[in-house]
Amino acid sequence: MRVEMPPITIRYRDTARQWQAWFGGNPCVAYSAESSMQAVHRLLDGLGTQAGELELHIDHSGCNTIMTATWQPPNLNLLCEHCNGTGEYVGLFHRETCARCAGKGFVAV
C-alpha cells in the first residue's frame, strides 16, 4: 500500500535568516535550517517519514518552483536536471553517461 504524502512547502524567512519546511499548507510544525534541502531533510527525519516520492513547493522571493524528490531514509534524492532522470547525456553526435549524476538519474542532497 502506497501512502500519498502532502506536498512540502519550503520558504525562506528573512526574519530568521533560515529556510523552513513543512507539510501541506500549515506551518505549525516547521523545521528550519541554513539551506532549503537541509530543512526538508530535517522535516522528514524529524517526523519519521516513510520512504516515498515527494513534491516540493519552493517559494523564494515570490518565485515558485515545484520539484519532485525521493525520500529513502536517510537519503533525499532529487531528479537530475542535466539528464532529466535518464542517466545519459545525448549530444548531437554522441551519447554518454551524465557527468552530473554519474548515470544514476538522481542527485543526493
What does this entry look like structurally?
This protein folds into 2 domains: 1-70, no CATH class; 74-109, no CATH class. It has 1 helix and 9 strands. The protein has one helix at residues 36-46; strands at 8-13, 18-23, 31-33, 52-60, 63-72, 75-79, 88-90, 95-97, 106-108. The strands form 2 sheets. A 7-stranded mixed sheet has the order 3-2-1-4-5-6-9.
What percent strand?
A: 35-45%
Mean pLDDT: 90
Count of DSSP helices? Answer: 1
Q: What overall form do the CA principal axes indicate? A: elongated
Summarize the structure.
By secondary structure, the protein is mostly beta strands. The chain has one helix at 36-46; strands spanning 8-13, 18-23, 31-33, 52-60, 63-72, 75-79, 88-90, 95-97, 106-108. It contains one helix and nine strands, in the order βββαββββββ.
Topology:
Layout: E1 8-13, E2 18-23, E3 31-33, H1 36-46, E4 52-60, E5 63-72, E6 75-79, E7 88-90, E8 95-97, E9 106-108
Parallel strand pairs: 1-4
Antiparallel strand pairs: 1-2, 2-3, 4-5, 5-6, 6-9, 7-8
List keywords for this structure.
single chain; 109 residues; mainly beta; seven-stranded mixed beta sheet; two-stranded antiparallel sheet; 10% helix; elongated
